[in-house]
Structure to design on (1198 residues):
């Protein structure tokens, strides 16, 4: 820890509002909860509250990012008619439920807090150094500094608040609209300890430089950066599966080159290789000449879960964790419609086999990113390939291809070309490096001395995949919980629907079937897709009793798609020199913490 | 062994033809070889010849069927211009090559053999009891009995001749046209020892009875019968991969009910569920009103390799080995064309989702076999679903659905309804037992007490599959061979092309990539199929040096399709109560026989 790591004792205090009866759900449950907490601070339950600390602290060590996401559903439930039960559920994981359960009848007591009149100025460095329960948990919001250490255990979104520790709250609140409520600001105000130094506040705006990446957009601080230039990052797994539709800000980013700045007015899309010469479309023409089509589709990087292959033997590529996969809605013109307008017909199918895409992103030599897909995928009515100009209902973000990208549902991320400049219907695959000499699978026996890239097909459809996002590897569950909830995602390429996820707590000896869902928990499930057009992932969850004898769990998941493809058991036999297609069973080890044996 | 197991000493002898120079390839290489063999019988090489016997004998024990197939390619090569080299290659596996190599210069010596004038009569039982090198190897052909014990080691098709031991040659020769040559009969005549009893000759024609299966067709004796009524059988694996196109006679048979006898003249196909009422087509109309379309497609039973699941825990179903899969060419009308003629159009697609099929095969209550497939597969131009009336260029055999069956390429065998009587376009899946309560996959945790058949989708596309056909599990290879050749098949459902097969000799620790082929060895490979339409399997082969230290090999294969789906490593985690979808890595154990340590 750097300078200023000693937690400051400044404690802002506000006078509490009159407490209200629990039968009035319109009164903030959070305020009630906060009060309960205050009561327990000096009472006999102080011990229980501190018992919660180790679990949160271990999370803080594990999560290296500088800031936080919160659980939208928890806030919603806390303010709905059944907020009592919901709140109890939310708190169960934090250790605060005991305090709440025993003391909510005392909630009408009023505590008087003085407001500090003059507050100190802190540097960003000082703030950043406070990101654990031991050192204190500080955050900034609109230029003010807050010490939220005391609030961590009460946060309805659980441990995730620690993701924001030492950083700014705003990008996380932008993710979870539930925070945009008056009472949330009221709670926050209570913890104000000072102001952020003016120059550090300015630095929170991105610093531009003159390198090729200087025009890259700002990114969400929660992203775990695998490479800065070009930018490659993934969200923390436990945030990833909070939302069926991944918010664009935390959707994994996989750029091969600097993000190009494209002027939407002068943008032109060129379509070549069809009878009647080239077709050129402005963004406006793309939006108005063709019907707008929307799909929900999961994109996955070929290198997702590469880090597990690196543990077998080092491979070449970014060390992706399990979150180089995300799910969004995409809207745009159907590629099929554009190709038909440009002269595509049965005659073309006789000579052409591929549709190539060129991005507007370039390397220093002027070479653009490129890829291709099979013609039949591009022109099929059921292929659903889009020239997308919207992601999650808004213009594409810069990192995701503004103003137009290809979305090839069911197909590896690398073919979903961003900042699309040109479409070429051709007898040949794209000649780009990424099509010819990358993104291909090989035998574990193939090394860089023996590899013949021509011997393997370019990856298009991806195989069945699943991973565990909660709990994280290396964490612990308390024996007193009696059960453990396991969550994750599952997806398969080629429009094959995930039909089952099996979960094991004993390394794969015995299995149980998880619950699947195709929407957020409080929403109706999406209509089942037609056969072969299941482009979106499924989230899954299962709560299992803790085995009586076990001291450690090896939690494993494996998914099955509707072609009954299964994931391979182990990583080594699918290891390949590029570390792609890493889809073995996902395994996490979790210790069971016996209640008496820990502090 | 039954009565008459003592080998008889009768030895028929024929006078050899004048031996000819080896530079005259039109002279039978087999006659030459036979002569070489005769020479060695009484010479110093007798020892070497007998060294070959244990390998063949072990094969005889392993192969329980009563009769034999031979290697067509070997005969062809033996009579081609490069017959010297080819013959040496063919013989390498039998131990006879040494005899040939040292003695072919003595081939012009003439040996005089007396012909026995009066030959004994044998019963079928006596013949059947001679099916090993120890007991002698007898066969019948057109009512004559032959003792071919001496010929076994010289057979160009290798050990496969033992499949015919104790039985009739004719069905095997029918499989391999190479035997239909004058000199083959000449060789055989040499080994004649008697005649088959007249009543047993008659019995070689099938005995009809009055049970529901009495009109079932005759089957090839090489088939390994898993169930007689209904008839379910598979070919021996080592024969299966001799031909890229499986001969119809040994194509695996999977009947659910008695084979119906269908009169082609009165046959009618009914198409229902489309605008304009039912369409009825005669066989002639089906053949003449619609273009004839031919595809090569592999069919696989959902229960293929079920026996491996039975080793984990008993499942319900026929104990299939690895050969409930075969490959054939199929010709017929496209289902799509017939549905269009019957009124199918975009309006139908809005209300219908499935195409149901009803067979003409019935149980005692009159219930017919039935199944359905998704409508989009049925009507897609690229789905290639056929109403087939030809298999391998001839009318469908009775066991394969004469006169018309559905061929749904890429889809589990169970949906390829035979003896097709009715097609129904519907909003619903087939209500048949086989669609609703069978042919579905479940978790290993699901048992017959907990299974909910509604919770799993009916199997349609099958997952990636491969298996080792040569060498067989439990056999041995000689250390002196220095290498081992491994052969097998690989296939994936849904038109996904097999792109790689990895083979391991050490149980999966290290791997090598096998050679794939899409045709018979001496033919040009088939043209690569369009993406998503790879309906046919690939055969594969690899020759690997024997590891210096190993005493036993655990040979493993695993295949990869062009969606990069892989086979799971082990059987237990994919075990399911019906024993379907058994596609874990295939493993065979083979001992290495050190030269000095065996007899």
């Amino acid at each position: 820890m750097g300078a200023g790591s000693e937690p400051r004792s400044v404690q802002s205090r506000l006078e509490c509002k009159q407490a209200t009866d629990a039968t009035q759900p319109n009164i903030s449950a959070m305020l009630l909860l906060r009060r309960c907490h205050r009561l327990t601070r000096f009472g006999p339950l102080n011990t229980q509250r501190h018992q919660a600390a180790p679990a949160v602290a271990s999370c803080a060590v594990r999560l290296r990012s500088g800031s936080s996401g919160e659980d939208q559903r928890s806030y919603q439930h806390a303010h709905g008619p059944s907020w009592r039960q919901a709140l109890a559920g939310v708190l169960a994981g934090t250790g605060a439920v005991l305090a709440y359960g025993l003391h909510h009848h005392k909630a009408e007591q009023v505590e008087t807090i003085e407001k500090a009149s003059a507050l100190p100025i802190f540097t960003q460095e000082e703030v950043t150094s406070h990101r654990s329960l031991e050192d204190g948990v500080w955050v900034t919001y609109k230029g003010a500094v807050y010490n939220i250490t005391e609030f961590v255990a009460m946060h309805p979104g659980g441990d995730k608040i620690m993701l924001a520790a030492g950083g700014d709250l705003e990008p996380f609140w932008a993710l979870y609209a539930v925070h945009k409520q008056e009472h949330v600001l009221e709670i926050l105000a209570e913890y104000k300890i000072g102001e952020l130094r003016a120059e550090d506040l300015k630095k929170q705006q991105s610093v531009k430089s003159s390198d090729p990446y200087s025009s890259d957009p700002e990114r969400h601080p929660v992203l775990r950066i695998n490479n800065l230039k070009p930018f490659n990052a993934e969200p923390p797994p436990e945030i990833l599966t909070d939302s069926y539709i991944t918010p664009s800000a935390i959707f994994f980013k996989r750029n091969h080159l600097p993000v190009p700045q494209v002027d939407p007015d002068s943008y032109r899309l060129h379509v070549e290789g069809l009878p009647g010469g080239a077709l050129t479309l402005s963004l406006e023409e793309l939006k108005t000449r063709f019907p707008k089509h929307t799909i929900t589709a999961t994109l996955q990087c070929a290198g997702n879960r590469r880090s597990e292959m690196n543990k077998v033997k080092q491979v070449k590529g970014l060390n992706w964790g399990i979150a180089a996969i995300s799910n969004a809605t995409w809207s745009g013109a159907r590629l099929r419609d554009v190709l038909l307008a440009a002269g595509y017909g049965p005659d073309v199918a006789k000579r052409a086999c591929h549709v190539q895409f060129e991005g507007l992103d370039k390397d220093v030599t002027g070479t653009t990113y490129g890829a291709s897909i099979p013609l039949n995928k591009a022109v099929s009515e059921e292929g659903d390939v889009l020239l997308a100009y919207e992601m999650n209902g808004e213009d594409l973000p810069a990192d995701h291809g503004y103003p137009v990208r290809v979305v090839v549902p069911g197909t590896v991320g690398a073919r979903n070309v961003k900042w699309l400049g040109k479409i070429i219907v051709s007898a040949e695959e794209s000649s780009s490096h990424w099509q010819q000499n990358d993104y291909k699978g090989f035998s574990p026996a193939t090394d860089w001395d023996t590899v013949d890239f021509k011997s393997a097909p370019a990856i298009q459809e991806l195989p069945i995949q699943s991973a565990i996002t909660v709990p994280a590897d290396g964490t612990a569950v308390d024996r007193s919980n009696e059960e453990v909830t396991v969550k994750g995602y599952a997806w398969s390429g080629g429009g094959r629907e995930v039909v089952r996820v099996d979960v094991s707590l004993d390394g794969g000896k015995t299995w149980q079937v998880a619950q699947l869902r195709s929407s957020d928990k409080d929403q109706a499930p999406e209509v089942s897709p037609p056969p072969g057009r299941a482009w979106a992932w499924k989230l899954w969850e299962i709560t299992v009793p803790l085995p009586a004898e076990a001291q450690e769990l090896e939690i494993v998941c494996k998914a099955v798609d509707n072609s009954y493809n299964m994931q391979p058991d182990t990583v080594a036999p699918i290891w390949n020199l590029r570390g792609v297609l890493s889809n073995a069973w996902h395994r996490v080890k979790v210790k069971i913490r016996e209640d008496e044996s820990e502090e």
About this structure: The first helix of chain B runs from residue 29 to 41.
